[in-house]
Design a protein that fits this description.
Blueprint lengths: L4 H13 L11 E6 L2 E7 L1 E2 L5 H4 L2 H4 L13 E2 L1 H12 L7 E6 L3 H10 L3 E6 L10 H5 L2 E4 L8 H5 L4
Length: about 160
């Protein structure tokens, strides 16, 4: 399957959404789309009670390398926020496409697969330090790399790597 004009429209949406992320370490955006309609959208962000701007980024404080020890983070990935928002709204995401600014991490890959996501379109890789986890491939999820659009924020291009 090739990236279509419709895909580019959705990639533009995540490029506009990405700089609104509150995470101090990375800006990542995700939308779940079904039948051409955006069901939910989110960025990686902390829980309201654990504002990293006030308490500091625990991953930075502990010098945690990208792609490791994800469980100590006070926030959730954009994909996780999308899935929780869909669940709160009672939306069925099975058969949806996830558009994400970074390839999903191993945890998000598992969650998206179990939720029944049929296709993932990502823009950039993720610094996974372990051998690649191919659950998408094993489950027949179509994974394609899209492009950064001209809607990509200059702020994003200056963001340090995660």
């Amino acid at each position: 399957m090739a990236i279509t004009k419709k895909d580019l429209k959705f990639l533009e949406i995540i490029d506009k959404l990405e700089p609104t992320a509150n995470c101090l370490r990375a800006n990542i955006a995700c939308i779940l789309v079904k039948n051409g309609k955006v069901l939910v959208k989110a960025t990686n962000d902390w829980h309201p009670e654990l504002n990293c701007k006030k308490i500091g980024c625990i991953r930075n404080i502990r010098n945690v390398a990208s792609g490791t020890c994800r469980e100590i983070c006070y926030g959730l990935c954009a994909e996780q926020w999308c899935l929780t928002e869909a669940a709160k709204k009672g939306l069925k995401v099975k058969g949806s496409t996830a558009y994400v600014t970074k390839h999903p991490c191993r945890i998000c890959e598992s969650m998206l697969t179990e939720a029944g996501i049929k296709r993932v379109v990502f823009q950039e890789g993720y610094p996974d330090v372990l051998p690649k986890f191919h659950l998408f491939k094993l489950r027949g999820v179509i994974v394609e790399q899209g492009v950064n659009t001209d809607k990509k924020s200059p702020r994003r291009l200056l963001t340090p790597s995660i």
